[in-house]
Amino acid sequence: PDRTQPPVAEPKYDGKPVAAPADATVLFDGSNLDNFKNKKWKLVDGAMQVVPKARDQFTNDKFGDIHLHVEWMVPVGMKGWHQQQGNSGVFLMNRYEVQVLNCWANRTYPDGMTGAIYAQQPPKFNVCRKPGEWNSYDIHFKAPVFEGKKLVTPAYITVIFNGVKIHDNYEIKGATHYRRIASYSAHGPKDHIRLQDHGNPNMFRNIWVAPLKMKLGE
Ligand code: MG
Fold first, then answer.
1. How confident is the model at residue 202 (pLDDT cuts 50, 70, 90)?
2. Which residues hold their Cβ within 5 A of ligand 1, which is an ion?
3. Are 29 and 36 in contact (CB under 8 A)?
4. How far is the CA of 196 from the centre of ligand 1 (A)?
C-alpha cells in the first residue's frame, strides 16, 4: 500500500456501450438477470445496481481463460472517501479481484485503487472518469493451472481501463486477500465471475465474455 501513486492518464473511453464482438456471449444486456444468481440486485436504466447488504453477484456459468468486458459507474454523491468511494470489484474465478472504486478526486492506497489487482498490484495509471460517468474494463485473463494441489502455471492478466492498459501480462500471485501475502489454493479450471457488494450502490452494464485471444503468460 505504500507504493507511489500511479500517474493520472486521460481516459480513451467516451462512456458509450461497447458492442460485443461476433464471438462474444452477452451475459447482461440490461433487460434481465437471467445469467446471474443474485436476483436482489436492482435493474435500473439498463444497468444492474448493487443493493448494499444484498451480497455479491455471481454469473450462473463458470469461466476459465476469458476476455471479460464490463462497464461500471460509481453514482454521484457517495458520502465516504478512500475505500468508501464506490467500492466494488470484479472477481475472476470468484477469487482474483480487479478493484472497482472511484479514484477521480479520491485518493487511496495504490494497490487498492481503481483497476488494482487488489492488495497485490497497483494499476500503471489512474484512468478514472468522474462519478456518474461510465467506465469500461476489458479484462484478459489466463486461468491458473493446477495438478492436484500443486500450482503448475499461475494466472496472468492484462487489463484495459477506459482504453488505457493498466496491467500488461501481470502474473497474479494468488487469490485476493486484504493485506496478506497472496498465495494459491488449488481450484477447478473454471469458476464464477463475481461482482462485489461492498456497501456502495454501484452500477454495472453491458457485460460480455469472449474467448481469450491475447497471448498471456509467455
Ligand atoms: Mg473491492
1. very high
2. 87, 89, 99, 196
3. no
4. 6
CA of 58 to the centre of ligand 1 (A): 15
Give dist(CA 29, CA 25) in Å, integer.
10
Asked if residues 142 and 65 have their Cβ atoms less than 8 Å apart, the reply is yes
Tell me the CA–centroid distance for residue 55 and ligand 1, in Å: 13
Residues contacting 8, CB < 8 A, separation 6+:
125, 126, 127
Measured in Å, residue 71 CA sits from the centre of ligand 1 at 15
Which pTM value belongs to this model? 0.97
Q: Nearest 5°: phi and psi at 112?
A: -120, 5
Q: Is pLDDT above 90 for 214?
A: yes
What's the pLDDT tens digit per position in 89-119? 999 999 999 999 999 999 999 999 999 999 9
What per-residue confidence (pLDDT) applies to 178? 86
Cα 87 to ligand 1 centroid, rounded to whole Å: 5
pLDDT in tens, 140-170: 999 999 999 999 999 999 999 999 999 999 9
